[in-house]
């Protein structure tokens, strides 16, 4: 069954590949791959034409929200499962609510505004947010993720994201994985997802390895690097080097 509601804390860390290797030597023995293991995640982020949601988010308010369309895997077609998600953060706690559709249905609903024959609570929340802000697709963000579960406590879920790219043109999940690099080559974004605070034993290991939390947003960083100037054309040349495959 697809989990629809999440509540957790998330801590983010920027690592080098060397940091990753050292960390896995230390804690790798108590980690196991989650149900997805190593996989690609692709997202379409929805925002206002002037990027109000991400601009607010970057101001680090007590409350912030974002809406995105997420898919898993390398080849995404119109009948592939996708997940419209509403992600909110209040006082450091992350709340995520999502539903499952196929891509064709999700496009009709969230791109074209077509009526959809479903009225479950989470869909109504998504629909309300879309209409409240008049949201449009604004950015594609994708990355390769390795996801693990801690054998000592399954509420501890480390993930490692590499090759994070973004684009602001051709905002279709089915067009493949290409875009401008968001992180420098050789850097890895680790996220720790926990039900409560990071446990003392794990915090001690990270501290001893000089690995400390950072404030980092994939969409926020892409916005600051490529969209904040107000021109969505600037990065188009780099985006034309397409690394993905189209799926009919």
Which CATH architecture? Answer: Alpha-Beta Barrel
SSE order in H/E notation? Answer: EHEHEEEEHHEEEEHHH
Percent helix: 25-40%
In terms of structural class, how would the helical and strand content be classed? alpha+beta
What would CATH call the class?
Alpha Beta
Give the biggest sheet.
Answer: 8 strands, antiparallel, barrel
Distance between the termini: 28 Å
The best one-word shape is globular
Mean pLDDT: 91
User: How many helix segments?
Assistant: 7
User: Rounded to an integer, what's the Rg over CA atoms?
Assistant: 18 Å
Strand content: 35-45%
Summary keywords:
248 residues; alpha+beta; mRNA Triphosphatase Cet1, Chain A; 8-stranded antiparallel beta barrel; 7 helices; globular; disordered C terminus; CYTH-like_dom_sf; Polyphosphate polymerase domain-containing protein
Brief overview:
25% of the residues lie in helices and 38% in strands.
Kindly describe this structure.
The structure is a single chain. The chain is of the alpha+beta class. It has one domain (5-239): mRNA Triphosphatase Cet1, Chain A, CATH 3.20.100.30. Helices cover 25% and strands 38% of the residues. It contains 7 helices and 10 strands. The chain has helices at residues 17-27, 52-58, 103-110, 121-133, 200-208, 218-227, 236-239, and strands at residues 5-16, 31-47, 63-72, 81-90, 93-98, 101-102, 136-150, 157-167, 180-181, 187-194. It has an 8-stranded antiparallel barrel, surrounded by 5 helices. A hairpin with a 2-residue loop joins strand 4 (81-90) and strand 5 (93-98). The protein starts with a strand and ends in a 9-residue tail after the last helix. The model is unreliable at 240-248 (pLDDT under 50). Residues 7-224 form the VTC domain. It holds the Pfam family VTC. This is Polyphosphate polymerase domain-containing protein. One of its GO terms (biological process) is polyphosphate biosynthetic process.
